[in-house]
TrEMBL record:
InterPro entries: Cation-dep_OMT, SAM-dependent_MTases_sf, SAM_O-MeTrfase
GO biological process: one example: methylation
Family per similarity comment: Belongs to the class I-like SAM-binding methyltransferase superfamily. Cation-dependent O-methyltransferase family.
Keyword presence, Transferase: yes
Entry-linked PANTHER family: CAFFEOYL-COA O-METHYLTRANSFERASE 3-RELATED, O-METHYLTRANSFERASE-RELATED
This protein's name: Uncharacterized protein
Coiled-coil regions listed: none
Keyword Transferase appears in the UniProt entry: yes
One Pfam match: Methyltransf_3
Alphabetically ordered keywords of this record: Methyltransferase, S-adenosyl-L-methionine, Transferase
Length: 219
């Protein structure tokens, strides 16, 4: 497949999203391209997105997932989900997307209670910024980690779950000590926490609004 950001259906979804009444959010083709490449490079099969909006990133991921792959797509806004579902259908990927309407924290908690810990390869976190830490803790539980003695081959690719976190630069506000609104403080505190977190390796990438790529290294 060509680069996902060049797919006409993604362009169409982006245009429809831009014309939505009251829409202030922007979707990022560069981020979606990176996400889909990561999913492909990892050979990910089981993915989660927290905060779907109209489905731009989830569609980019679903397009690249193999037929056996699945993306659990968590979103609280039914109107946005209807747009996403229309595009999954049109792109022929709706069988790969498991849409979960409701509060994402409730959905993730239910997945853990349902015995799904350590069974996801890839997660994308992009919902309420004040709850990042809460989502992150549950995603860390849900993504895979196989310690050395459980890995049959040193070349096995799916040993570590990866979590990608969006908006970590928050348009530069996290670096401005004079900005102290709740969302900025929450993202700033979250960035500091995961920098020191021995359960993960991280790399912050300054594309879009800043994303952190986080690899689980401890279970
Ligand atoms: C920035 S948008 C997501 C954009 C999407 N990830 C993309 O790249 O195309 C954030 C979304 O998170 C959703 N959201 C915020 N809080 C939520 C919650 N508690 N549970 C589920 N979804 C939530 C919002 O409704 C919004 O659609």
């Amino acid at each position: 497949m060509a680069n996902v950001r060049e797919q006409p259906i993604l362009r169409e979804l982006r245009e429809e999203t831009a014309t939505m009444h009251g829409s202030q959010m922007q979707v990022s083709p560069d981020e979606a391209q990176l996400l889909s490449m990561l999913v492909q490079i990892l050979g990910a099969q089981q993915c989660i997105e927290v905060g779907v909006y109209t489905g731009y990133s989830s569609l980019a991921i679903a397009l690249i997932l193999p037929e056996s792959g699945r993306l659990v797509a968590c979103e609280k806004d039914a109107r946005c989900l209807e747009i996403g579902k229309k595009y999954y259908e049109r792109a022929g990927v709706s069988h790969k997307v498991d849409v979960r309407h409701g509060d994402a924290a409730d959905t993730l908690r239910a997945m853990i209670q349902n015995g799904e810990s350590c069974s996801y390869d890839f997660a994308f976190l992009d919902a309420d910024k004040r709850a990042y830490d809460q989502y992150f803790e549950m995603l860390l539980e849900l993504v895979l980690f196989l310690s050395d003695h459980l890995v049959s081959s040193p070349h096995m690719s799916r040993r570590w779950g990866v979590i990608v976190i969006d908006n970590v630069l928050w348009q530069g506000r996290v670096a401005d000590p004079l900005v102290d609104d709740p969302k900025t403080v929450s993202i700033r505190d979250f960035n500091s926490k995961i920098l020191r977190d021995s359960r993960v390796n991280i790399s912050m990438v300054p594309i879009g609004d800043g994303i952190t790529i986080c690899r689980k290294i401890w279970s």
